[in-house]
Amino acid sequence: MGRPTPELPLLALLLLLPQALRGAPCPEPCRCPPDGALSCPGPRTNLSRLSLTYLPIKVIPSQAFRGLDEVVKIEISQSDSLEKIEANAFDNLLNLSEILIQNTKNLVYIEPGAFTNLPRLKYLSICNTGIRKLPDVTKIFSSEINFILEICDNLHITTIPGNAFQGMNNESITLLWQDRDEAINKFKCP
Ligand SMILES: *[C@@H]1O[C@H](CO)[C@@H](O)[C@H](O)[C@H]1NC(C)=O
Ligand SMILES: *[C@@H]1O[C@H](CO)[C@@H](O)[C@H](O)[C@H]1NC(C)=O
Ligand SMILES: *[C@@H]1O[C@H](CO)[C@@H](O)[C@H](O)[C@H]1NC(C)=O
Q1: Which helix (H) or strand (E) holds 76?
Q2: Which residue has the higher pLDDT, 153 or 71?
Q3: Which residue would you say has higher pLDDT here, 13 or 135?
Q4: Tens digits of per-residue pLDDT, 68-121?
Q5: How confident is the model at residue 153 (pLDDT cuts 50, 70, 90)?
Q6: Rounded to 5 degrees, what angle do the CA atoms 180, 109, 41 make?
Q7: I need a surface site. Which of 88, 135, 137, 178 has the fewest CB within 10 A?
Q8: To test ligand 2's pocket by mutation, which of 69, 71, 73, 93 has the most ligand atoms within 8 angstroms of CB?
Q9: pTM (predicted TM-score)
């Protein structure tokens, strides 16, 4: 009774140490295999914000967040290993209103159709990544009247193609765009 258990703190330390060395923990309910594909399967009650930072993953695959019906905001940042976001990665997340993708400098590919059927999406921000063209936003089908697309510090994007927003239905889009001279330009279409 009341016997001291010195092993316990040591055990806790040993369990926590690898996590400290690897960086931030992979949040529930996700799996974040090093150099592998992220997976955050739902449903998950009361999960409205998902913050994915300092993760060792390489790919955000199709249906990565499948079933996370309540999620409102997804933030992905500070991950140098991330290289690719596949088509349908963000698909059918009916409550999702904000996506932030920031400081992922090796993220070079965002496949067309990565953002699909996101009726509540209001704000998509892609900053300081390695992408070479504007992401395809024509399949978002947001019913939000003012949809904001923020594109900043993506040094490899130099121009906005004329047809970038062709096929968007009825949502109006405000593009916040930072050019080479660091000026923030604001475009509104249509
Ligand atoms: C979800 O949140 C509500 C309200 O905050 C709470 O009553 C409920 O127990 C939570 N459900 C779960 C599964 O955590
Ligand atoms: C959106 O989230 C609420 C809870 O915050 C949930 O009751 C509702 O079912 C979700 N909507 C959809 C379409 O899943
Ligand atoms: C946009 O168009 C779809 C059909 O294409 C319609 O269901 C939706 O209500 C429209 N949204 C707005 C904001 O007008």
Answers
A1: strand 73-77
A2: 71
A3: 135
A4: 999 999 999 999 999 999 999 999 999 999 999 999 999 999 999 999 999 999
A5: confident
A6: 125
A7: 178
A8: 69
A9: 0.81
CATH 3.80.10.10 fits 25-189, yes or no: yes
Buried b (16+ CB within 10 A) or exposed e, 24-52: bebeebbebeeeebbbbeeebeebeebeb
CA 72-76-81 angle, to 5 degrees, is 155
Q: How far is CA 181 from CA 130, 160, 178, 189, in A?
A: 18, 15, 8, 23
Ligand 3, atom 9, lies closest to the CA of 143
Provide the token pair at 119.
């009726």
Yes or no: say if 118 and 147 are a contact pair by the CB < 8 Å rule.
no
Strand partners, 85: 60, 110
Least Cα distance to 109 among 79, 84, 82 occurs for 84
Nearest atom (ligand 3) to Cα of 145: 13
